[in-house]
Amino acid sequence: MKNKLRTKRIVTAICLLVTVGILCIVSSMTVFASGAETDPSNVLSISMSDGGNGEINGSLRILLTLTLISIAPILIIMMTSFTRIIIVLHFTRAALNTQTAPPNQILVGLALILTFFIMEPTVQEINEQAYQPYEAGEIDLDEALERGVAPLRKFMYPQTQVKDVDLFMDISGQEWDGVSLDSIPLSVLLPSFMLSELRMAFWIGFVIYVPFIVIDMVVASTLMSMGMMMLPPTTISMPFKILLFVLADGWNLVIKNLVESFYH
To answer: What sections of the chain are H helices per DSSP?
Structure first.
């Protein structure tokens, strides 16, 4: 049943793409209704002039907008600071051993807010260099896309380790001079950036875990020395973890150093 539904969706998507392609290629078409031979009023003509101003049709613009909205979560995860932030926040909650406090919705919301804060200069650059000139008719769609990707590449490259780029370059059989950003294909830069973000997030998570592990060890050894072996150490250590985190202003330290990690 699932395979039939998936096949139906694929066929529907192909038909939609073919229809859009026909509308883009054919300059004019005429549709005849029943009795068109005798009644000219039953003839519907659709014409698309070749001498237009190069702007995208309103319906096609809506289609592209909906497509961008559907892939926006993927772009946020793959091409921004969201991945590192959400992983570090989850490590922080796990180190505190507070289970669901703060809940996932709060962590995701905080990660999105911090992502928008960090990516604001990049978004402004995309708006000024790509979107506004395209809306004004100064550049075409291809040039707008090229200009729009450039700030994202400039953001991702400093966060990407060279060995990760070399890895995917070797896998794809391509060559890189090791210096120029423009010589890195986007298909190589994206997985390299994701791999570097995962590595950095786990390193930060390890650093966050260390002081809380020390508290667990101290509490466990104290309970063992007192002969209270049946009492779970986490039950006693969790309040001390929260107290240490609050006294050290933990959220301020975590978020401050997490945001600054994208600027150094």
So the answer is: 2-25, 58-79, 82-96, 104-126, 132-135, 141-159, 162-172, 186-225, 233-247, 250-260
Q: Please write the tens of the pLDDT for every residue from 66-96.
A: 777 777 777 778 888 899 999 999 999 988 8
The answer to whether the CB of 77 falls within 8 A of the CB of 68 is no
**At CA 251, angle to CA 247 and CA 254, rounded to 5?**
115
The pairing of beta strand 28-32 with beta strand 43-47: antiparallel
Give me the long-range contacts of 230-239 (CB less than 8 A, separation at least 24): 234/97, 237/97, 238/96, 238/97, 238/98
Which region among 4-8, 24-28, 217-221, 253-257 has the lowest average model confidence (pLDDT)? 24-28
Q: Which amino acid is at 8?
A: K
Nearest to 129 by CA among 146, 154, 116, 142: 146
Rg, the chain, Cα only: 28
Gap between the Cα atoms of 213 and 237, Å rounded: 10
> Among all chains, which residue has been given the structure tokens 């992983």?
87
The single-letter DSSP state of residue 55 is P
d(CA 59, CA 168): 39
- The residue extents of the domains of the chain are 76-260
Structure tokens at 135: 């809306």
For residues 150 and 186, what is the distance between their CA atoms, to the nearest angstrom? 10
Q: For residue 198, name the pLDDT band (cuts at 50, 70, 90).
A: very high
> pTM of whole model > 0.90?
no
Question: 147: how many CB neighbours lie within 10 A of its CB?
Answer: 18
| CA–CA dist 86, 255 (Å, integer) | 11
Q: Cα separation of 81 and 157, whole Å?
A: 12
